[in-house]
Every structure is written in C-alpha cells, then in structure tokens.
Amino acid sequence: MVASSVLGFPRIGANREVKKAVEGYWAGKLSADELTKVALEVKKTNWTSLKQRGVDLIPSGDFSLYDHVLDHSAAFNVIPKRYLGHNLSPLDVYFAMGRGRQADGVDVPASEMKKFDSNYHFVVPEFSEETDFKLVFNKALEEFTEAKNIGVTTRPVVLGPVTFLALGKATKDAKAGFRPVSLLPKLLPVYKQLLADLKAAGAESVQIDEPILVLDVAATYEKEFITAYSELAPVSPKLVLATYYGRLDSNLTFVAKLPIAGLHIDLDRAPAQLDQVIAAVKPSNIILSLGVVSGRNIWKSDFQAALKLGQKAVEAIGAERVIIATSSSLLHTPVTLAAEKKLTPEQQDWFSFALEKASEVSTIASVLSGSQDAKVTEALEANKVSIAKRREFERTSDDAVRKRVAAITPEMLERKSPFAVRKEIQVKQLGLPKFPTTTIGSFPQTQEIRTARAKLGKKEITEEEYKTFIKKEIESVVRIQEKIGLDLLVHGEPERNDMVQYFGERLHGFVFTQNGWVQSYGSRYVRPPIIVSDVSRPGPITVEWSSYAQSVTQKPMKGMLTGPVTILNWSFPRADVSREIQCKQLALALRDEVVDLEKAGIKAVQVDEPALREGLPLRKPDWDAYLSWALPSFKIATAGVTDALQTHSHFCYSDFGDIFPSIQALDADVISIEASKSDMKLLSTFKQYGYSNQIGPGVYDIHSPRVPSEQEIKDRIKAMLEFLSPDQLFINPDCGLKTRAWKETEASLINLVNAARWARQTYQ
C-alpha cells in the first residue's frame, strides 16, 4: 500500500489566531498560559484536520510561535550572550532573539534573519567555540505527545543537524576561520537524546529535514552527513531524510548510502531527478517519499501527472516503499480554500490550498494503492474535469501584451547616459545635501488607516470620502518628515494594503483572496496575489498619490513602486507560461508607471526589488538562465525616463557577494540594502568591486520595535565610510516602516537625522 504524507502545515490558524495571540502577548493583553492555550488549539485543529482528510503521516513539531529555526536554537541552548542575564522568562528570551527587546531596562537588538528560496524569513543561529549545546526542551516530543493525547499518531519533524549548523553564522567573538559545522561532534549527543526520547515515547519514524542537500555546498559536507547519520540511526526511530526546494544532483551519491529508512525528494521543483533517485535507492531498503503535490503554489494538482510519477516508482521499487507527499511543508500556502467567498466558481476550481492539498496526497496515494472507493474515483474524475477547464482558460491570451513583450529591444534596457553624467544632472535638480536622509517608503499603517480601508470595502464610506482621508494621512506623513528634517521624502503609502497586492489589484491578470494568508516572518503575514492571465496596466497606479504628496511640500518627493521581479516572486505565478514572460509583462506595465510619474513632476522613483536575490536558483549552474531575464526586467521598468530622474531600488536580506556584477548591471542611481543586522559584511563587496553609484545601507533594523540610539547610528555611518566614499552614502533605515508604531518610528528617525547632520559636520 502507498502511504500519504504532509511535510508540514501552516501554523497561523485558519483565522490568524496565532498572530493575534502572539501580538496580544507582546502588548501585555495575554498571559503566557493564554498564548500557549491558543497555540495548542491551532495544533489540535491542524492534526485532526489532516487525519480527517486521510493523511497517513501527519507532521508534528512543525508548529512555531515565531520561526521553527529559532525554536531549534532555543531548544538546543543556542542563545547569544546578549539575550542572557536580563531576568527574562524563556519565552521572552525567545521573542527577544526574534524581534529584539527594549523595555524594563533591557535593550537588545533582534538576531539576523535570512531567507531560503522563499519569502519566509528564518532567524539565523549564532555559533562559536563556546556554544554549549544541551536539550533545554524537546519540542518534537512535546507535540508528539500532545497529538497522541487526542488520538492522532504523528510523525515528528526535526531540523537536521548539518542544515542547522550550515544555516548559522559565527558570533563576533568566534575565532577567525571558525566554521559552525565544526561543532557537529558537540551537537550530535543532543540530537541522540532528542531522537532516543522520541523512540521511547513510541514514535515509529521521524522526518529529519536537511534542505541544505539541494545546494552545491552540500558536497563539502559529505563527511559530516556520514558521521551524523551513522551515529543517529542506531538510537533513533526510523529516519526519513527530507530534501526540498530543489534537486539532489551529485549529492545523491552519498545520500543513498546513509543509514536512513526513507528519503523525500521534491518532484514539484525537480521532477527530472526521479529516475536518478530510483536507480540510486533501488538496491537498498530505503523508502522513497515523492513530493508530487506542490507545497509552494496554490494550483490544483494534475492527478494524472502525479500518478505517472508515482506509478514509475511503484513499478521500480514496490508500493510498500513509496510515499506520496507534498513537495515541502505547506507553510508557504494559505490554510484552506473553504474560507474564500469572493472567488468565482471557475476560479475556486483552479486552486488548492493546504487542506485541499492534504486531500490530494491522500487521493493520489489511494489511487496508486488500487482503491476502489467511490469517493476516490469521484475525486479522480473531478480532477480531470477541473484540469481540462483550466487548460482551456490558459489558451486565452492578450495579443497586445504578447506583441509588446516580443517587441522589446536592447535599447529599452539602457538609460540615455552613464551614471556619472546622470548624477550631475540629478544633483542640480534634487538639491540634496551631503549624506542625504530618506526612508524606504512606507510609514506606520495605523488602526485608523486599516479601519478606513475596511469601511471602503464594505461600502460604508464612498470612494471620495476615502480619498479625502488618504490625502489627510499623506499630508500628515509629509509634515512629520519635514519636522524631523528628512531630505528626500515619501508619501508614506497609507493607501496600500501590501506592497505586492496593491499593484496586483490595479493590474489586469491577477485574482485575490480574502483569507489567503501566508507567514513571512514572526507575526507578519501576507496575502500573495495570484497571476492567472497576461498582465497589463489599464491606467496609472500611484501617480495620483505621489503627485498630491509633492504638491504639499517644497522638498523632493520619491515615488514608490514594487519591482517586476518582486511582484512575480511574491505572488503565486502562473504555471502555464514561463516566469520570464510574466516578469517582462510586469516590467512593461511598471515602465509606463515610472514614465508617468516623471511626467507628473516626481524627481525620484524607487522600484523595490527585495526578492531579486531570493529568486536566484539554488544551484549555481542555473543562475545565468534566471539572471538573463530578471535583470533586464528591472531595467525595462526603469530605463524609460530622462537622465534627470533619480532611480532608486531597495534590496533586503540578501547576500550579494555571489551576484554583485548583476547588481552593478542594474544601473540604479541609488540602491538601499539591509545592513544593520549583517555586521556590514555586505559593504566589503561594494568596495571590492569598485561600486560607483550611490548607496544607502540601512542604519537600523525596522523589524524590531527597538529604537536605535543616535550614537549607534553614528557608529554605523563611521563603519560604512570605511568601505564607501561620503559622496556615495545615503542615510536610511533597513526597510519600510509599515509594521512599526509611530512613537518608535519618530524617535528612530530623529536619531537618524541627527546622526546624518553630525556626519556632514565631521566629513566636510
């Protein structure tokens, strides 16, 4: 019999219960016990829902109040010294690591965050020779027991030891040349204890996640993998090694020889690897878990395509050695389609969210097992009809959009003059001082703003009343910026619900959900729009608001747009046409918007691309193919203007060293980057490559409510000037201020402006 499996499930709750509870705890409105109770109810609902849908291998241990990598660090006592000694509870230490803390005499910044092939941020573990691993608590065991107590048998999920170390970084006090993976001998005894406890509690198997295996760097960890699993296997339940987001490639050679009971592979991202994997595991007793139902998109699975892959494995190694699974955790998908009431019946039939995907793996496994159940047969036939209807819709296209993409010329990618020429023109037009100050775009989205938007949606206020409200908000934000003393202003984006959704709602080719929430980090959830057809701009999107903002100030106003690559990567894209075509359609729509902003008198436009690096394929041989359309898409969007318009772009949580020539090739006049939590390590790359355009490395972390001191910002400016010339440097926060409160925002920006004034006096 073929079993079914889900690798992980959204931990946010069907109605965002976890977000509300976590933020309630932060605000002092909920106790720790009340927060724990909400979390337990969400976990119970997840487990029982998956059981009701016929999933055989239900995950536990995948839930988190903030981030599962942070959970692992806390459980294994990987807690940086700066968070200790403040008389905080373990829960408050945990949240301080994730978001910082500035209260009751405690002032600590948040830990660094990074991404791994998605818009989900994980908290980076910090290691040194002094790291003292110990099992503070066994989260996997706790959740296994909780599920068992309500009659649900689960398969615990644990982050693998090699990936845990590989995701981390050395602390500042670690010795030069220290590699976190060198700590494996110290770490393994703790893993042995965790896994042995699970075995004693009755866990038959454990899913142990090692996504690092789909990276090129994993080849350098072969010895560590062999050592780790040779030690863990004898004391553990059956170990199912899970890989996802990519292909194993040559790493399969040593993975297939590890003493593991099962191997999970992602056949959504890398279906071509199936034959190679089957050949490698066939001589062994390794069970093969096939990720045929995508954990990354929201399209209904094509059962016939999935069955074809599953049948190939069954014929090669037998049904008892095959599991049908999601390609990865369903963390990246909304909870359920049942909550969507505004999608048309046709649109509803296209999609599948987390709970629906659970039903899909169960159905596919049942068909492969030879089930004669009428419900299974009915589901199989209904899927055929759904897929046929979707394919019929996909054949429609917008000829004008397709022709415009085909007519793109190399000249459309280039500004009229080199940067040095443009800079002189822009200096005269903008009149900015040395060390100009600005922000990344958004300002706090208050409850009043959200209420007004909700009232408009419910038709409780008119469009004109809403516009009047938004104009008042914009003018208020402008006045605050003027009072603080910022140089290059923004309108604050009060009209925007989300930096991607807002644009999607004003472009043809998108559909939207009511409750399609997906976790980005901590309690920050987003509702990705869905691209369903060719994309075009029916009219101006932001011109009205930026123009109004410019009309109420003498200072220059910066227009704010989200770039084509980011809109694509932070949406659920089409599956029937290439990402390149979708991105270039978006680029042409945004090109028109940038041109219209300049015509309306806007002298600087920021086109944000925080997802540019995130979208880079995991395997280096695949990079050129991606960059060959991602970079031109940005340039198409920004190159249609005169030399006088200053173009900005923003990048966050990105390691640029490996693609720095590509960043240079974007030819933005000014780029801003996350730098406050990365120890300025990015800036050495800019110096190494002789970057000549202007740059604004973030001087403080906006993902934390903590207010940086003026001296902190001065120290960061001094550090930046070791790598950059004074003429290059803009002074700005790390990212947009949408999620922050006004009190901390104003205090932080006042310190930022004062630090910039100090820099002007010091570096004349």
Provide an overview of this structure.
Catalyzes the transfer of a methyl group from 5-methyltetrahydrofolate to homocysteine resulting in methionine formation. Its cofactor is Zn(2+). The protein has 764 residues and is of the alpha/beta class. It has an eight-stranded parallel sheet with strand order 1-14-13-12-11-10-8-2. β10, α8 (222-232) and β11 (238-242) form a beta-alpha-beta unit. The longest helix is centred in the middle third of the chain and has 22 residues, at 463-484. It is globular. The model has no long low-confidence stretch (mean pLDDT 95).
Secondary-structure topology with pairs:
Blueprint: E1 3-5, H1 17-26, H2 32-52, E2 58-60, H3 68-75, H4 90-99, E3 101-103, E4 106-108, E5 113-115, E6 121-123, E7 126-127, H5 139-149, E8 154-159, H6 161-167, E9 169-170, H7 184-200, E10 205-209, H8 222-232, E11 238-242, H9 252-255, E12 262-266, H10 274-281, E13 287-293, H11 303-317, E14 322-326, H12 345-348, H13 354-368, H14 374-394, H15 399-406, H16 419-430, H17 447-457, H18 463-484, H19 501-504, E15 508-511, E16 518-521, E17 524-526, E18 530-536, H20 543-551, E19 558-562, H21 564-569, H22 579-599, E20 604-608, H23 623-638, E21 646-651, H24 660-666, E22 670-673, H25 683-688, E23 694-697, H26 710-720, H27 742-762
Parallel strand pairs: 1-14, 2-8, 7-9, 8-10, 10-11, 11-12, 12-13, 13-14, 19-20, 20-21, 21-22, 22-23
Antiparallel strand pairs: 3-4, 5-6, 15-18, 16-17
Helix pairs in contact: 1-2, 7-8, 11-13, 13-14, 15-22, 17-18, 22-23, 23-24, 26-27
Organism: Somion occarium
Pfam families: Meth_synt_1, Meth_synt_2
InterPro entries: Cbl-indep_Met_Synth_N (IPR013215), Cobalamin-indep_Met_synthase (IPR006276), Met_Synth_C/arc (IPR002629), UROD/MetE-like_sf (IPR038071)
